[in-house]
Design goal:
Blueprint lengths: L2 E7 L2 E6 L9 E11 L1 H8 L16 E9 L11 E4 L9 H4 L24 E5 L3 E3 L6 H4 L2 H14 L6 E5 L3 H11 L5 E6 L5 H6 L4 E4 L8 E6 L4 H9 L1 E9 L12 H6 L3 E4 L5 H12 L9 E6 L3 H9 L7 E5 L1
Parallel strand pairs: 8-9, 8-11, 9-10, 11-12, 12-13, 14-15
Antiparallel strand pairs: 1-2, 3-4, 3-6, 3-15, 4-5, 5-7
Helix pairs in contact: 4-5, 4-9
Amino acid sequence: MTGHVVVEAPGEHRLAEHTPRAPQAGEALVRVHSVGICGSDREVFQGNRPEGYVRYPLTPGHEWSGTVEAVGSGVPGGLVGRKVVGEGFRNCQVCDRCHAGETTLCSAGYEETGFTQPGAMAPTLTLPARLLHVLPDDADLTAAALLEPAACVAAAALKANARPGERVAVVGTGTLGMFAVQFLRAGSPAELLTVGTRRDREALARQFGATDFRTKEEELPGDFDVVIETAGSADAARTAAALLRRGGRLVLTGIPAPGAGGLDPTDLVVRQLEVHTVFGAPPDAWAHTVRVFAAGLLDPVPLVTHELPLAEFPRAMELVGSGDPKVGKVLLHP
């Protein structure tokens, strides 16, 4: 049976029979090729995602790639047959934030594919066609399933605005950190330091363009122009700030536990640090990601360590939560 995953409630899931939903006006029906799993999917499964950011019962899956099979009225017919990825955040398109292009801050409230709307852990996904980003015809759809986390990092890279020849650093060596290295590398930095907790990530970081690798226990320099933090701990945020020169630019993408100790405001003011934050990816970051991927400057494939059929959803959840350093990105194939 080609079913789809349904998480009925925290800890309860089943494989249900799948009937594609015909696209309405403005919508597209996508045949899903691959769907990635991230920590937030595990939160959905365990039930520890914050209130208002999930709606049960739910088909998860917000990192995906696929091919358009059908479109509703008002959607260009040329999309049919094209390889695509898609934005997860739904938005009203009429509030001030949407008009500014900041769709992840839409005033209409939070709605996202795979959290409050049906996700991609299914043979097909039907969604507003305006959320789609078209890939080159020869794109590797397995690699493209990782473009959602890449787009979040692209948002950080755009805010960091690193110029060629600047000294840049990344704190965190997970999927997001490795994408940050690739985006910053594409901008021709003079130096690209990666700071992590595990030495075993050094080879991959260097493969992606890092010129130096340190663990946070080692002595760290303090004169970088730009630092992107992807680790999601208050400690990582402080480490990232300490790497900057006076007037340097910091972009925080990780989400620490609520109430975590933060950056020292005195330090921020006295050193005149510029601090940016990212939550999700607006359309310009998605477009940037697809452009960089199509140009061959992003290589997501080395980040994938496991590919499983959709029916092995419970095993995939176990892998993602195992803490095993040999588990990287886990993909499911409907």
